[in-house]
């Protein structure tokens, strides 16, 4: 771990004069972050956070080339370590060709980020957020790959609604998603006794429609996605029949203020077969958050959010079936490339982000946490 | 004492000159661009990556200054964004595979050179930069 931190710091120091590279039209951009998490009780997100953990490193590099005025191709490689999740393997975050016929119609194909809600497609780009952890009720850091991208395609565009009507942005997608075998769901299934040689996968399709109102800064929209998932393990199977995820949202930004909110419903009941035993895992996730922030200076920004998750399919009075998180955040940009963040969490319930393997003495219902992160981007 | 006063006066004059210079941002485009005026909405959409064509349908290729007062005044007055907001918007596009950063130049002279040599290019410089190799666009609401 210290080696990883040293490598991160070395990269930051050596590249402090590095600008985004543009080699004969090929653009190269990247980012690297190092986080720290300390919790009063319990170990969160598979880190030894109760004794302070630095097992939180993220890095990506992207290559993009505009081949013609309408056609762009690119790839982004990504590596992350989040406690016991992730690891040294470099993954393809996205890799796509993007053909924009005109401003009203475009196509993307390949491994494409999935547009769902406000932040799904950008949730792993730490540099663009004030928050260290996005609201975990809707954007769980330990299970990003479930929704983050799909293999397939996307159609997108915008429809102007006249000088007083604003603009309508649409996107529709279809393809297949594959779980990251080093991520939370697969880890949780392993704790249930299912170890997969090949990660579970399934078909998905859906879309997003949002309205950019004539009142500048106001956006309202809704996303929906149909998903299914199945996998065969050495001693059993996982089956999640087709389900509909819905996600209405709104955001408003005006000068230094930003407010946003989103609701998501995920009725994702799973059927596990382990040997002769069939286990039903009923899930009806109701998640939402509201957030607000203010930019005090060009370099300093602070804000707060409340994130709420409850599994309505089970006893909602039990801490294991809910998670409610009050969060305070601050961010300081040292320059265009370096930034630092600090964040306090007041977490009630144990419904999200906890793993038995690293909490073998059981879980306390509440925990406070302090998170810090430094990041570099070019 | 007198030297110090002169120095303060000189620095003051320099900052006033710099601010006045920064207010005088001119939109420049390649001579192949057919339009002579551009709406604030189109200008914003082109520089934020939401639009890739001018009103006449020809391809638009925005070019940016890396930083400095002219860049900041352009972002504030024409796009209504701070440098941080503008950077964040483009980072989101780049790291999600939804866009490629516009070409960035170190100096106004480099912007003029690039715009002059690139069909469809549109950029901004201060009024004092020579503009004979490019055409100027008039912004309107």
Structure characteristics:
heterodimer; A: 378 residues; mainly beta; B: six-stranded mixed sheet; globular
How would you characterize this protein structure?
The complex is a heterodimer of chains A (378) and B (141). With 378 residues, chain A is mainly beta. Chain A contains three helices and 19 strands. In chain A, a hairpin with a 2-residue loop joins strand 13 and strand 14. The radius of gyration of chain A is 21 Å and the shape is globular. By secondary structure, chain B is of the alpha/beta class. In chain B, strands 2-6-1-5-3-4 form a six-stranded mixed beta sheet, sandwiched between helices. The longest helix of chain B has 22 residues. Chain B starts with a helix and ends with a strand. At the A-B interface, strand 2, strand 3, strand 4, strand 5 and strand 6 of A face helix 4 of B.
Task: Offer a concise description of the structure.
The complex is a heterodimer of chains A (378) and B (141). Chain A is mainly beta and 378 residues long. Helix content of chain A is 7%, strand content 57%.
Topology:
The complex is a heterodimer of chains A (about 375) and B (about 140).
Chain A: H1 2-14, E1 21-23, E2 26-39, E3 56-66, E4 71-82, E5 85-102, E6 105-113, H2 145-148, E7 149-160, E8 167-178, H3 184-191, E9 201-212, E10 218-232, E11 236-254, E12 257-266, E13 270-274, E14 277-281, E15 285-295, E16 300-311, E17 322-333, E18 338-348, E19 366-377
Antiparallel strand pairs in A: 1-2, 2-3, 2-19, 3-4, 4-5, 5-6, 6-7, 7-8, 8-9, 9-10, 10-11, 11-12, 11-13, 12-15, 13-14, 15-16, 16-17, 17-18, 18-19
Chain B: H1 2-23, E1 25-29, E2 37-39, H2 40-47, E3 61-65, H3 69-79, H4 83-95, E4 103-105, H5 108-117, E5 121-126, E6 135-140
